[in-house]
Every structure is written in structure tokens, then in C-alpha cells.
Fold these 2 entries.
Entry 1:
Amino acid sequence: MKGECTLQTPQHASVDGFSAEKALFLAIACLEDRDKHMHCAQCGTRIKWESAFVSAHRMTEDCVGTGTIVQVDIPYCPQCEEKPYVRGCFHVFERQDGCATGELDFSGARIAI
Ligand SMILES: [Zn+2]
Ligand SMILES: [Zn+2]
């Protein structure tokens, strides 16, 4: 299994970093057929999407039980990869004035935090 071609549920990751990883995974590890279905580039199995519940919280808060829960779909190959974790967390950076950014812009959905 090639580590660089797997996508895992974000753990202590920034939203931007995860978005970039997901885009990279879809570009490198997946092939799209004519019907817009994604397939694994290595074995050809149809890519599955696992819904994960990710807690988006500020850097200063604990990783457990705080923040806003965001549902994130994680693409993976059921043949080559482990099923992604159903829980993870995003770390939201605060602005220089000490306020949180206020909302997350993730996959087109705006999430107030
Ligand atoms: Zn965390
Ligand atoms: Zn595969």
C-alpha cells in the first residue's frame, strides 16, 4: 500500500490542509470513468465514501468534546485501504486579534463556529 495515495480522516488537521490532501488523493489515487464514477487507480475498485464526523475546534481547545461537528465525506478504496476513522478533528486558527475566523468554508458549506 502506498502511503502517499491514501486519505485518512483529518486528525488535528487544518481545513485547508485536508482540502488539499483530498484533492490530491482524488487526482492521484482515483480515476474517473465516463459516468463520473471514481475508481481506484491501483485496482480499479469503485471508490467508496465514508461519512466521518469531524470536530472543528480552536487551537486552544481540547481535542475531545469541543467545537462544531462537521460531516465530512472521505473517499477510499475498500480493496486497498482501511476504512477511514469515523471521528477526527479540524484545528481552526484564530486571527491575530484573538477572534476565531467565525466560520469554516468547507466543501461549499459554511459552518459557524
Ligand atoms: Zn483537535
Ligand atoms: Zn484499490
Entry 2:
Amino acid sequence: MITYLVFIGIALALTVLFLLYRTQVLLNVLQGKLKTTSRVDGANKIHGILFFLFMVLFFVGMFVGQEVYKKYYLPEPASLHGVDTDYMFWFSMILIIVAFIITNLLLFTFPWRYQYKADRKAHFFPDNHTIEIIWTIVPAAVLTVLLFWGLKLWTSITSPAPQDAQVIEVMGKQFAWQVRYPGKDSKLGKYNFKRIDANNEFGIMVEDAHSEDDFIPRELHLLKGKPVELKIRARDVIHSVFLPHFRVKMDAVPGMQTNFWFVPTISTKEMRAKLNKPDFNYELACTEVCGRGHFAMRFLVVVDEPQEYAKWLAEQKSWKSQNEDYFAAKKKEVSASQKTASVENEKKVASF
Ligand SMILES: [Cu+2]
């Protein structure tokens, strides 16, 4: 309460001071002490100069900042389509920067260049159809080109994956990524969310023969030059698969599968050498603020040369082999429940 009263008191005091000042000015005018013939005072010139100075400082700051923070930019794209998306990104960026510089040059130099002068009269300029047509058609044409270019690019990126693509399932949950490889048969076993439990994070259906050789590694290994198709899903809330170095981003949505395929082109080793950072690693991050542990959703990604990849593949053990007891018990349970279901069905049929 006291704070409010203090605020009101200050506001009233300021109002009184302002009114006193106005009265004094008016008094001066009445007494002829203040020349009213001049429509502007020296502040006009100062403002003009300040506008200009601000522009110079701003542009210098912009380019210096860009040089200083360049080191935080993403390195060159490590995927085939990434080269095209980057090209389009930088093309649009340069267009935007040029337009930005031209408009701001005009905006900030005009108050300085055309500041008030007693002997200069403003030019009355109601409209000009030619100029309006130009500044409508040129941006519209540029935007149309960018739009169709982008659409064409997106269609090619999201086209169906090639037949020989390595299929990998990526599943997001609060708060970790898990990946599943299809094993030697190149086919992922079916899953059902009802089967999810402490042992079976993916809800793998044990009765599907394809699930027997599926393996669940702790790192995402990709083979350089081989197309990879990610089959993406989420267990709880929306997550988002983000592989910044490969320019890949796709939401992981509960109850629905999304896909993204790409071709990694630079192995982890090569990227380390290029960046001169021996501890560099590709990563899979989550770009959907999915809860308290969102920050922890980092998964290591390794792009291997063929020999390293073959070696890594050979080391992987199937999920089944690591959970033999669970697998066997679950399989029994499932076949028992299938039997009772079929008996009940027969009963139903018989009762008709
Ligand atoms: Cu997430």
C-alpha cells in the first residue's frame, strides 16, 4: 500500500513540475522572450547526426559480431541433401542482408540528409504508380522463386528412401533416445505399445520372427555413403530428432511414425581432421522442449568407414540374446493367450 502511495506521490510531483515548466514557457512566449518564428531548434541537427552515428555503429557491430561468432556456426554439412539446404539457406540469407542494408541505409541517412533547413521546402509526393509496381512485383517474384525452390528441395528430401537404405528405428521418451537396428534380416520386428515394460522399452512383439535379431546399441552408428532411413516415434510426448551436422530434423510423435532418410558423407574421423578437433562427435539432440530432462536427450552418433562399421556390427548382440529368459517367458505367455483367444472365438462361433 505504502509503495503505491509513494508511486502516486512521485507521479503527482512530476506532473506539477511539468505544468510549472509549461507555464514558464508560455509566460516567456507571452512576454516575447522566446522567438516563436523558428519552427525547429538545434535538436533537429543533433538527432540527424545521432541517427547517422547509430547506423554506422550498428553496421560495424553487425559485421564484427558476425566475424567473432563465426566459430559457433555449424561446420559444413555432412550429408548429401545438407549441401543443397545450406546453399538455399545462405542464398536467402544474402538476399535478406542486402535488402536489410539498403532499407536501413535509407532509413537512417534520411533524417540526417533531409533535416530541417529554413530555406528548403519539402517536395510533395503523393504517389507514383511505376515505383509501386516495381516494389510490389520484384519482391513477389523473388519470394515466388524461393518458395518453389524450397518446395522442390523439400519434396526431394522427403521422397521415399532408396531400397538399399539402412533402416533404423529411433524412439524418443522422457528423457532419452533409443535406437533399434533390424539385424541381419534387415527387417525390424513389429512392436505394440501395450508390450512396453521395464525389460522391453520398445514394446517389441517377441512372436514376430523379425525381432529375434534386432539389436539396441548405445550409439547410433552410420556407414559413410550409405543411405539411412530413420523410422521415428515417441513413447510419451512430442520429441524432435535433430542431427544438426546432417541438417536433419523431424518430430517424433506419439502414436504415429515419421521418417527421414539421408546419406552421411563425412566420417567422424574425417570431420575431426577437418575441424582440427580430436574430440569432436556428431550428436542426436532433441529440439522439442519435452520436459524437465529435455537437455539430457543427447545421443552419440558415429559415422564409420566400411571396415569400422563391419567391426562394430559384428560386436553387436541381439536384444533377444541379452534377454533370453524374458523373451522365452513372454513368448509362452503370448502363445497361451492366443490359444485361449482362439478357443473363445470357436466357442462364440459354435454358439451361433
Ligand atoms: Cu525430447
